[in-house]
Write a structure and sequence with these properties.
The complex is a heterodimer of chains A (419) and B (299). By secondary structure, chain A is α/β, with parallel strands linked by helices. Chain A has 2 domains: 106 residues, Periplasmic binding protein-like II (D-Maltodextrin-Binding Protein, domain 2), CATH 3.40.190.10; 244 residues, no CATH class. Chain A has 17 helices and 4 strands. Chain A has a 4-stranded mixed beta sheet, sandwiched between helices. In chain B, helix 2 crosses helix 3. Chain B has 2 domains: 216 residues, Rossmann fold; 61 residues, Alpha-Beta Plaits. The chains are: A alpha/beta (419), B alpha/beta (299). At the A-B interface, helix 1 and helix 9 of A face helix 2 of B.
């Protein structure tokens, strides 16, 4: 236990005291604060630069009747859109758009059936918001005109367009209401991303650490004083604690940032990400799945790191493992929209996917308790098996030098470990 | 207090790395372990340390098997530098000493004595990677003996050191031996082994080809060297029966001879060509024995 604590402390402290670690942490915290205050910052920048993004929409009105209602419609909208009647010909305007003198122009008129006909011309075919706004505006102008033609009162028009009451109910026992789901989605997504990021980041840190100790040959001294298995687990737990501390720092600073920011978006942000009525259960599950996911992948990473003798080879050897994490993340992300999908249920019991997929399900659905517990059990078992297997590979792997970059080395390492 | 290896054999698949090795290193003695690259020295050390298990035979330290329970009694200097490049000297040595069972305060005290002795006190707060190769080796040596081990295993301790530092290190090791420690070390440098070790082994392809005390090894070799310095032509001497090899030098030549009679013949023959400046019968050097036993190719 003494040696275990020594290696644990060494793994934790030497890493925590490195400049790179401190700088990464500071940058991440700074990013959190920046994100929390982004609207105030944008506002501040706008007021300094004077906000020159006032847009002008040039309109060619063939009917001569549409320009005034259009102006009125746009005036009612928020935003800096000004509608200007153009006296130029269509050719001239097209030429001006092409030369970049103006952004776009609109041609409106009536067709033979007395319906509004409009054409929007701009350089960019990928523009969506403005054309949609124009279409909406013209649509309501047309409705108004037609209502007048048919001499309908505005009450009658309102009745015509009154929305129906539509609500969705699911009888699935695991389903949460749509509202709850939307709230959970943001929180689950953020936490899922944190788990994903942490697993990738800290696992590769472990693999690199082990390979560095091997390449600097300090490993030989270490394992002649401490058993390789003890060394491996102390290392994994040491870096894991480091990860927890870093995550906790991020979490706390995120909380402080959102609490202290003057931005009026916070309320919206809070409710959008489901932080306003933060589900304690979800947070607890996040910590549990973070730990399990970390140990699962870190043990694997330590095993893989012990196989290479140069730090340059680490990336190559942990590549397959990284792909596994990425696949797990992709599966989980596709499930954000519909967490009831069948394949999510199955993959949430596969150990390497479970940390993300089961977390998604447990965060978004009302699962019976046995499901997350079974998944946690499976992961614990896998971690145990990997740890046992890893310790065997490790024992031989750390003594192996030379160009090693294939999976066959695992067999060789176990063989050497037995000897 | 003795380290004993009995009939130790280690095989990796079909390859026999160590073949029936037997040796005893008594308390307070220094044992030299010679062999060409790949002869099985490091494998033997790893078996002594318990990192590898022998296929056959027994390794005991004071009658017990060496395990992690005895790690505080053992010091090990690996062949290549084994230190964290990015850790500071002091921190690192205290960490390694603690791993070998020392308390932090004791480690600190011992460390400052050793750093002073090795004349590297001013590097205590430098990172290891910032030091020169020789100074790193000194750190490595301190790491292996800071916890006062009873058994010290040194794999190539003098590599990368300049002559002044070699002397400093030798003095430290001898003093350590005199305080009662048992030391086993490997080297390519025959002169170091000759100077330091009471007993030695030469191993070749895992087999022990020579073993015993330095005196016995030299005696049983049978051959002696005759050194002649002369300004005249000594080539007729090469063909004298009983001369097994000749090394020409600027001053003259060194002849390896099978018996003392041959020395007389050499002297007579040399005087025939002209007066000589120097004539001596010398004991065979370890170098000669090594080359003879292991072969010129590996020297």
């Amino acid at each position: 236990m003494r040696e275990f604590m020594l290696i644990f402390k060494q793994a934790f402290l030497t890493k925590a005291r490195t400049k790179s670690f401190m700088i990464t942490t500071i940058i991440m915290i700074a990013a959190v604060f920046l994100m929390a205050n982004i609207t105030s910052i944008i506002g501040a920048v706008k007021s300094v630069t004077g906000g020159d993004n006032e847009e002008i929409l040039y309109v060619l009105d063939h009917s001569g009747e549409l320009i005034e209602p259009l102006k009125a419609q746009f005036a009612a909208y928020e935003g800096d859109m000004t509608v200007v009647l153009s006296e130029e010909s269509e050719q001239t305007l097209t030429e001006q758009v092409r030369n970049g003198e103006i952004d776009s122009f609109l041609t409106v008129g009536f067709d033979s059936a007395n319906q509004i006909q409009a054409e929007y011309t701009s350089m960019n075919a990928m523009e969506f918001t403005l054309p949609m706004m124009i279409e909406d505006a013209l649509q309501s102008i047309q409705t108004e005109l037609k209502a007048e033609e048919m001499s309908l009162s505005s009450e009658q028009v309102q009745v015509l367009f009154a929305p129906i009451q539509f609500e969705q109910h699911s009888v699935s026992p695991s389903a949460k209401s749509e509202e709850e789901l939307n709230q959970a989605r943001g929180l689950v997504y953020v936490l899922m991303f944190l788990i994903y990021f942490a697993v990738i980041f800290y696992s590769s840190m472990i693999a690199t650490e082990v390979a560095t100790e091997k390449s600097s040959r300090v490993m030989e001294i270490l394992i002649s004083s401490v058993s390789p298995a003890k060394h491996m687990f102390a290392k994994v737990i040491g870096i894991g604690s480091l990860g927890l501390v870093q995550m906790a720092l991020l979490g706390i600073s995120g909380f402080i940032a959102l609490k202290t920011t003057s931005s009026d978006m916070v309320d919206g942000f809070f409710s959008f990400f489901g932080f306003s009525n933060m589900n304690v259960g979800t947070i607890v599950y996040a910590v549990v799945f973070f730990l399990l996911g970390y140990f699962l992948y870190a043990t694997l990473a330590a095993l893989l790191g012990s196989l290479v003798s140069r730090t340059e080879d680490v990336q190559q050897v942990i590549m397959p493992m990284m792909l596994l994490v990425i696949v797990a993340f992709m599966i989980a992300v596709t499930g954000l929209g519909n967490p009831d999908m069948g394949y999510l249920k199955y993959t949430s019991f596969i150990p390497f996917f479970a940390p993300l997929v089961m977390f998604l399900r447990v965060g978004m659905l009302d699962l019976p308790l046995w499901e997350p517990l079974l998944s946690i059990g499976i992961m614990l078992l896998t971690i145990f098996v990997l740890g046992w297997f890893g310790a065997r590979v490790y024992r031989g792997g750390v003594l192996m030098y030379g160009a090693s970059r294939s999976w066959k080395d695992i067999k060789k390492a176990i063989q050497l470990g037995k000897e | 207090m003795a380290l004993q290896l009995e009939n130790v054999t280690k095989q990796f698949g079909d390859f026999t790395a160590v073949d029936h090795l037997t040796l005893t290193v008594g308390e307070g003695t220094m044992y030299g372990f010679l062999g060409a690259n790949g002869a099985g020295k490091t494998t033997t050390f790893r078996m002594i340390l318990g990192l590898l298990n022998a296929n056959e035979g027994k390794i005991t330290w004071n009658g017990k098997k060496i395990s992690y329970a005895t790690s505080a009694e053992i010091g090990y200097l690996p062949e290549e530098r084994g230190l964290y490049p990015k850790m500071k000297v002091e921190e690192q040595l205290i960490f390694l000493a603690q791993l070998r069972g020392m308390s932090r305060t004791d480690a600190k005290a011992a460390l400052s004595t050793w750093l002073e002795r090795m004349e590297i006190k001013h590097y205590a707060n430098k990172k290891v990677e910032e030091l020169s190769k020789g100074n790193q080796q000194k750190i490595q040596v301190i790491a292996s003996l800071i916890h006062n081990p009873k058994l010290l295993i040194l794999d190539e301790p003098f590599s990368g050191l300049d002559p002044v530092n070699v002397e400093m290190l030798k003095a430290a090791i001898i003093e350590f031996r005199n305080s009662g420690a048992t030391i086993i070390f490997s080297s390519h440098r025959m002169d170091h082994v000759e100077e330091l070790c009471e007993q030695l082994s030469i191993i070749h392809h895992g087999k022990q080809v020579v073993s015993g005390t330095l005196r016995d090894v030299k005696r049983s070799f049978g051959k002696q060297n005759v050194r002649i310095h002369s300004d005249y032509d000594l080539s007729p001497l090469d063909s004298i029966a009983g001369v097994t090899s000749t090394h020409k030098s600027i001053e003259g030549a060194v002849y390896q001879i099978e018996s003392e009679q041959v020395a007389n013949e050499l002297l007579t023959a040399a005087l025939k060509s002209g007066p000589i400046r120097h004539f001596a019968i010398e004991e065979p050097s370890l170098q000669d024995i090594f080359i003879e036993k292991v072969g010129r190719v590996h020297a």
